[in-house]
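Example 126, ligand zinc ion.
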Amino acid sequence: MTKAVDTRRQYAFEDKVLSGIPSINKQLAQSTLQRLINRVCKTIAYEYQPPVVVFGPGVRHGKQMLSWCNGPIIELAPGQRDKLTIYHELAHAIGHEDHDDEFRSCLFGLLYLFEGINCQTMWTGV
Ligand SMILES: [Zn+2]
């Protein structure tokens, strides 16, 4: 699959399926999200410094402003200051640049390990 198709499919899955799970979409304080990042990185024995979360405008993607991660920093756009976005950006930080199968299995692993959410069965329906 091409990168663009992977990305479209990933965003659609998050928008249509994962957005329906309140526990990972609740907007949280920066300090709460930082603690989550630190806990995840410690648990999975992430070999670098845990990324620092900042609240900012995000980057433009079409008409939307999106959160991003460059490794050491995760910037969360308005309306995306939630656990789902943290796990998504952490999957990038861990080393999965594109929204490919490896990215998805990393993200699904984090959601299962830390939230008890099994995405595998939901994904097949997309
Ligand atoms: Zn992404």
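Summary: The chain has six helices and five strands.
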